[in-house]
Amino acid sequence: MPARPRDLTPDRGARHLFGAKMRAQRERTSMSLEGLADVVNVSRSHLSRIETAEVMPPPSLPTALDMAFETDGIFAELYRLACREIHPDQFRRRMTLEAQSRLIEEYAGQIVPGLVQTEEYARAQFTAANPKAAWEEIDELVTARMSRQALLRGASPPDHSLILDEAVLRRGFGGPAVMRAQLARLAELTLTPATVLQVLPFEHGGHALVGGSLALLTLDGGTQVVWEESITTGTLLEDMESVADRRRAYDLLRACALSPRDSAAFIRSVMEALPT
What we know:
Elements: H1 14-28, H2 33-40, H3 44-51, H4 61-69, H5 74-85, H6 89-100, E1 101-108, H7 119-129, H8 135-148, E2 159-165, H9 166-170, H10 176-188, E3 195-200, E4 213-219, E5 224-229, E6 234-237, H11 240-256, H12 260-273
Organism: Streptomyces carminius
InterPro entries: Cro/C1-type_HTH, DUF5753, Lambda_DNA-bd_dom_sf
Protein name: Transcriptional regulator
């Protein structure tokens, strides 16, 4: 006798509602979990855990479900809401503004910014930050981070400017193979139609943004806001004086950083120095 399906709790949040809607559509079409797994290319066990809201759906699943069930974007909309639930309130505000930005300018002093991390680098970073975390928790955080990157792959992505301290390139996460793949991705982003990436070498010395990370978000209409982040906290700054101070500090760093061409060469030299 087959086990009775677990009760669902769609009223607990967007992720729970996503799972409940998925089961409802699956039962409406008389499709088993095995059958749906073949259609959407996600394992039966993973789909079962998504239905019961134990894990976040992978980024590719919402579109696949909307196509399979002809639901006109319902699962894509639920997924966007579910992703925001993972993050604290202020970070959700940052994500909302990030999605509305036409220009994102970032400085990172220690860690590759989340918008351009590889999946394995993100996994290694989250594991280092919380080595006692269960793999399900790490997997959920990685999925959420990868979902943010869809912003840069849309039909009209924002322009993206990055200044990375040399420490970002030399501080390894996950071992040489993980770092080599991450550095290769950064080298590709140094100059594209939508991205500019520059390296700030150690020889530059001290500067106003040492000790944290910064994101300047320019919205439609020219409004600018700032997101500052330390080890475990982030602060959204919207007053004009604070934004102007960070704007000047960022512009000074950009003037002192290597050109995109020299930055690509610098990144490749760091890759070559990694052990095989």
